[in-house]
Design brief:
Blueprint lengths: L5 H12 L2 H29 L3 H10 L2 H10 L2 H31 L1 H12 L6 H35 L1 H18 L1 H23 L6 H11 L4 H15 L5 H4 L1 E2 L6 E2 L4 H11 L3 E5 L6 E6 L25 E3 L4 H11 L3 E5 L5 E6 H9 L14 E5 L2 E5 L4 H7 L17 H9 L8 E4 L2 E8 L4 E8 L1
Parallel strand pairs: 2-3, 5-6
Antiparallel strand pairs: 1-7, 3-4, 6-7, 8-9, 9-12, 10-11, 11-12
Length: about 475
């Protein structure tokens, strides 16, 4: 009788091995691979690829799912640790189950026969070859399936549909977040210590987080005014490298500048009214700044008539800086080029505003007032100790001072905004209508009046 073909023999093995137990095992294997491993792997990309705009949209939704996503994203290290722990447990279960399935599908005798057949051509024992074949089939096959269906495919899909994927996995990840809390906390603690040790070995500088430094500052100062001022200076030093030029610049609508074609009399009037020592000079509009006029250069010409050509005194060495430039880098640029003023340009090349050396120093030591500075009165109405009406352009620092809250009360909600109206626009993403209410604990904001271009009056309630 002719021997059975190998494929027919394999078909016989598979058909005879598909018992109820095997069917359940294969079903469980597919669930672990195509759902558990794939979904957990895709979650890493989905959660960490959410942009600030996506997070703002979730914050506006005010749903249970969005709250779960924001809570998970608030602790990125623990979230990543939870995903890695979950994925490893699932992959270990897949490997163990696959080894059991392969043994039962092919049968132990099949591997023994293969080992004996190969030992005739390879100078190794049949037992060693039998185990080697079994391990290779398990490793190669399972690795291929895990990489393709458990890593690559779900991560590509999650990258293209990150918001949808994150919402689907919000509840499962929240459950695992709590379930693996002891393991993830331990993993994060160890990784932080290793990171600190590596950084210290490389640079000789201990790796201390800004939150830890902030807490240390609070512990080392008392409630006296002088100590509070010292604490503010220390906080300013800590956050100095993270502040961009856009955050401290004077916007173009508030910049005092002069057109190149202005007369000498108009120039002197602007200088006397503003009191500034440096005046930007532009052609046609502020987007085309051609130089800076130093008032001290005019001292010898103050008695000249209106026909005096003051344009010859313009200094053409203008420092331009993008809005995203950090102020510590801008300070170095000031020192290198021996300048005190920079024109801030937006992404399209237009002039967005102006930053001076004094503006940068004020970020560390607080507001600097000289003999020419006048105390500006903040436009507000106090209804009672918990309700105030402010002008939209009021600085958040002034709001904190007037309503007697901590200076850092707006830090986590203001984004890049410096004014009260800017904070509202950052949170909503559009100019709201009158009577629009926004609650961000511990504040309640209500729009009192608004124009087509800006928010004019805001009712602030301290909850």
């Amino acid at each position: 009788m002719d021997p059975e073909p190998p494929l027919l023999h394999l078909h016989y093995i598979l058909a005879s091995s598909l018992s109820v137990e095997m069917i359940l095992g294969i079903s469980f294997f597919l669930v672990l691979l195509l759902f558990s491993s794939a979904l957990v792997s895709g979650s890493e990309v989905a959660f960490f690829s959410l942009s600030p705009h996506d997070l703002d949209d979730l914050n506006k939704e005010e749903s249970k799912v969005s709250d779960q996503i924001l809570t998970l994203r608030a602790e990125p290290r623990r979230l990543l640790a939870t995903i890695l722990i979950s994925n490893n447990f699932i992959n270990i279960a897949i490997v163990i189950l696959s080894e059991y399935l392969i043994r039962n599908v092919f049968g132990s005798q099949t591997f023994i026969d293969w080992g004996v057949a190969l030992s005739e051509h390879i100078p190794l024992t049949s037992e060693f070859l039998e185990k080697t074949i079994s391990v290779l089939i398990t490793i190669v096959g399972v690795t291929f399936l895990l990489v393709l269906f458990g890593e690559v495919a779900p991560k590509i899909y999650a990258n293209l549909n990150n918001m949808k994927f994150a919402k689907v996995m919000a509840l499962p990840m929240t459950i695992m977040f709590g379930l693996f809390r002891p393991f993830s906390a331990l993993l994060v603690r160890w990784s932080s210590k290793l990171e600190s040790r590596f950084i210290y070995k490389k640079s000789g500088i201990p790796n201390t987080s800004k939150d830890e430094l902030d807490k240390a500052i609070l512990l080392t100062v008392d409630n006296e005014n002088e100590s509070a001022d010292e604490a503010d200076i220390l906080r300013g030093i800590i956050k100095f490298g993270n502040v961009s030029a856009k955050q401290i610049m004077k916007s173009r609508v508030d910049v005092v500048a002069i057109e190149e074609g202005a007369s000498f009399a108009e120039l002197m009037a602007i200088i006397k009214e503003s009191g500034f020592s440096r005046i930007p000079v532009y052609q046609e509009d502020f987007d085309n700044v051609i130089g800076i006029l130093y008032v001290k250069d005019l001292l010898g010409y103050s008695k000249e008539d209106d026909g005096f050509n003051w344009r010859k005194l313009i200094r053409e060495d203008v420092l331009y800086a993008p809005e995203s430039k950090k102020i510590d880098d801008l300070l170095k640029e000031f020192q290198k080029r021996r300048l005190h003023i920079a024109i801030i340009v937006d992404e399209f090349g237009g002039s967005a505003g102006l930053v001076t050396l004094e503006d940068i120093m004020e970020e560390v030591i607080g507001e600097i007032k000289d003999e020419f500075d006048e105390d500006e009165e903040v436009d507000f109405i106090k209804i009672n100790d918990f309700n105030f009406i402010f002008d939209g352009k009021t600085f958040l620092s002034d709001v904190s001072r007037i309503i007697s809250t901590d200076k850092t009360a707006f830090e986590n909600i203001k984004g890049d905004a410096d004014s009260l109206a800017g904070l509202i626009l950052h949170q909503l993403g559009y100019i709201p209508k009158k009577d629009k209410t926004l609650i961000i604990h511990p504040f309640k904001f209500k729009i009192v009046s608004v124009s087509k271009r800006r928010i004019e009056k805001i009712h602030v309630t301290l909850l």
